[in-house]
């Protein structure tokens, strides 16, 4: 019996649910990855994430080869390519892990229809989440609109243990089943990736997980996660984005980390840190559930109150934000970290997103797209959720008038300016306290070559509140 495993956002062999079931059910599993031809249609990714994808595919192909199998690469619409492959291999079933975003979902429907039409089996599995969107609902069976009650329910549900790693996928597909070469950025007509992105592949991801836990970052997470200087968080988001690590394995490692090597419970603060970390994993699934239940958030504001809200920010303002030259050191540091590494600390994502929407009054959709073009971990659900939360239009218990002051954020989370100086070297000789306030003499820059702040935060805060209030009044 031959079956196909369709790799999607699950580019690993260990604890891959659909792959596990495929190998149990058939003597030969033909692994396939189908490259999209999206570049012609939208600009929602860029060299950083695609380069990471290329590296992940290369690593996956090697790991499959080590098992005597061969990764088949195709390009085009998944259902059409799968149909071809089914005919070529005489496969009797297609296996895949479910994706919860609207594009993934729409394609799954087509693949299911294809299998029905061809009279073969179609098996899909829960894999990238601990709980699927429809498994975490209110008592009335409705989706949650705010995080806290969602997370309480999510935390209380039993979690599945990981599967192992398959020992074999059976013989490789014969040479008549052709494969495209491993992709490079040219496939999508993208320029080279110049950012220092994380090492790709399952093994590198496992090293990151190991480091996060064994170096104690997990155990200090509750106290340190908001500090952007140095590594204070797991840095596993790209691994989760591409499924280089299984969410079940991460969860299990967290549970194991509650006790030390001799089996003694960790101190209370360390245990609380681990719980805090697990709650962050719930945020990821919360936003996936929001996108699943309310797919309109892609185009419009989650909160109906704010649909049609004007965003009078200019293109020139946006460009200064995007290039990290606003004159607000903390904002510029965040944007430059993004440009140089394809990643940005969560606290900085909030600060920069709020600055763009509430100080510069630019449409959150512009920032959302810019992040998607640069982030290695670019994830539709989390990115949209994070942007709408920051813009004050999202699934959030707090009202729109929560506007963070970038100067105060800076003083609170990077008091010594270590993070700022790392990413904005022009400021390396500026004493820390001066980094957290507008220049005392207006018009005089903090350092040579560094711009003066492009706006006054208090003025823009008032303007933002006025825009929101007027919209509310006129509705
Ligand atoms: P850790 O602090 O170690 O957290 C562990 C994991 O929990 C993360 O890897 C991530 O999967 C999840 N997580 C943590 N915080 C959040 C959150 N607020 N929302 C959703 N999941 C969370 N995350 C993405 O994965 N992709 C995105 O495209 C993305 N865009 C964002 C845009 C904005 C404007 C904001 C405010 C947040 C965004 N986030 C996004 C969430 C968060 O910033 C990143 O998940 C986090 O910075 C990744 O670093 P880490 O793995 O070290 O996180």
From TrEMBL:
Family the UniProt entry places it in: Belongs to the DNA photolyase family.
Keywords: Chromophore, FAD, Flavoprotein, Lyase
PROSITE patterns: DNA_PHOTOLYASES_1_1 (PS00394), PHR_CRY_ALPHA_BETA (PS51645)
A Pfam entry, by short name: FAD_binding_7
Limits of the Photolyase/cryptochrome alpha/beta domain: 1-130
Cofactor: (6R)-5,10-methylene-5,6,7,8-tetrahydrofolate; FAD
Protein's name according to its UniProt entry: Deoxyribodipyrimidine photo-lyase
């Amino acid at each position: 019996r031959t079956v196909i495993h369709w790799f999607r956002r699950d580019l690993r062999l260990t604890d891959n649910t659909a792959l596990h079931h495929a190998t149990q059910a058939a003597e030969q599993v033909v692994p396939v990855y189908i490259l999209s031809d999206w570049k012609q249609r939208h600009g929602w990714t860029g060299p950083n994430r695609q380069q990471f994808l290329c590296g992940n595919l290369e690593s996956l192909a090697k790991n499959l080869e080590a098992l005597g199998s061969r990764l088949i690469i195709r390009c085009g619409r998944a259902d059409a390519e799968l149909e071809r492959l089914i005919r070529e291999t005489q496969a009797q079933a297609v296996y895949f892990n479910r994706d919860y975003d609207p594009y993934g979902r729409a394609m799954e429907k087509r693949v299911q229809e294809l299998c029905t039409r061809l009279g073969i089996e179609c098996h899909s599995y829960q894999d990238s989440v601990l709980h699927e969107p429809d498994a975490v609902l209110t008592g009335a069976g409705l989706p949650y609109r705010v995080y806290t009650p969602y997370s309480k329910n999510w935390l209380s549900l039993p979690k599945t243990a990981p599967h192992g790693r398959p020992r074999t996928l059976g013989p490789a597909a014969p040479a008549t089943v052709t494969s495209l070469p491993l992709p490079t950025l040219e496939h999508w007509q993208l320029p080279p990736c110049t950012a220092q992105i994380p090492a790709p592949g399952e093994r590198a991801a496992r090293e990151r997980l190991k480091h996060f836990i064994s170096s104690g970052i997990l155990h200090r997470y509750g106290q340190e996660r908001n500090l952007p200087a140095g590594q204070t968080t797991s840095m596993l988001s790209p691994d989760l984005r591409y499924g280089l690590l299984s969410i079940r394995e991460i969860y299990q490692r967290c549970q194991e980390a509650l006790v030390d090597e001799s089996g003694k419970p960790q101190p209370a603060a360390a245990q609380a840190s681990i719980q805090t970390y697990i709650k962050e994993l719930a945020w990821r699934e919360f936003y996936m559930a929001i996108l699943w239940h309310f797919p309109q958030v892609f185009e419009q504001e989650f909160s109906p109150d704010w649909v049609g809200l004007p965003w009078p920010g200019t293109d020139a303002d946006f460009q200064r934000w995007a290039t990290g030259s606003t004159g607000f050191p903390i904002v510029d540091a965040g944007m430059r970290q993004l440009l140089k590494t394809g990643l940005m600390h969560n606290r900085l994502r909030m600060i920069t997103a709020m600055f763009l929407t509430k100080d510069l009054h630019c449409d959150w959709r512009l920032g959302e797209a810019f992040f998607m073009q640069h982030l290695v971990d670019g994830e539709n659900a989390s990115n949209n959720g994070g942007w709408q939360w920051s813009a004050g239009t999202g699934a959030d218990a707090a009202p729109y008038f929560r506007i963070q002051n970038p100067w105060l954020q800076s003083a609170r989370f990077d008091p010594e300016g270590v993070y700022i100086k790392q990413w904005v070297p022009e400021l390396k000789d500026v004493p820390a306290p001066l980094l957290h306030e507008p220049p005392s003499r207006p018009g005089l820059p903090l350092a040579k070559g560094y711009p003066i702040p492009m706006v006054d935060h208090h003025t823009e805060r008032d303007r933002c509140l006025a825009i929101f209030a007027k919209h509310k009044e006129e509705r």
